[in-house]
Known about the structure:
Blueprint: E1 3-7, H1 9-18, H2 25-35, E2 39-42, H3 53-62, E3 66-71, H4 75-84, E4 88-91, H5 112-123, E5 127-132, H6 136-145, E6 149-153, H7 155-160, H8 166-183, E7 186-190, H9 198-204, E8 208-213, H10 215-224, H11 226-236
Parallel strand pairs: 1-2, 1-8, 2-3, 3-4, 4-5, 5-6, 6-7, 7-8
Amino acid sequence: MIKLSVNLNKIATLRNARGGDRPNVVQAARTCIAAGCHGITVHPRPDGRHIRTQDVLDLAAMLAVEFNIEGYPSQEFLDLVCRVRPAQCTLVPDPPEVLTSNAGWNLKGEVRWLSEVLKRLHEHSIRTSLFLEPDPEQARRAKDIGTDRIELYTERYAKMFATPEQAQVFTMFHQAALVAQEVGLGLNAGHDLNLDNLPFFAQNIPGLLEVSIGHALICDALDMGLREAVKAYLRALGSTDEI
């Protein structure tokens, strides 16, 4: 079974646009869980433009499903994650000013510092994942530096879906997934996956354990409601245990 982790950043973005506490991030998490999702994802950034530190603490206090916190491993971020001890921490190479994640880690340079970050997270019993491009060599390096999983950055797949380039691009993701299996890495995926492109990806990527979806799911929720949107994404993943 491929697990669905719902990213709540856009809920927080909408709340912050007006101030106050509507929509409520914790209530949105409860709705997603009631609909059958397997996890909740947040990406707190230094400027607090969507998810804030208090959101992370509030969610950690109530979640009965897996909590995935993603972000750049600054000292402040790591202190928060180690305080909360989520099930998983996904490390991304985002500089603070970017609008959204736009690249995977380049592990071909000096990455001993990243190994130390992974070690610290493991000492707090947190499963680790690195946000990566669909590059088999990067997957091998990820294993060498000590991560538990990788998350394939799927923007290029999403852009090329249903175009003549889809097959060529998808081959890169398939090869990276095979290498992850070969070296013993867990496999996640995320970024721009939606109800159109998700079923093919889920059915054809070997060893896929989890997808993290936020923007597209929240957009669909504007039409069908949050609970029904979560259920639609579970169906797209082939889930038979939705509520």
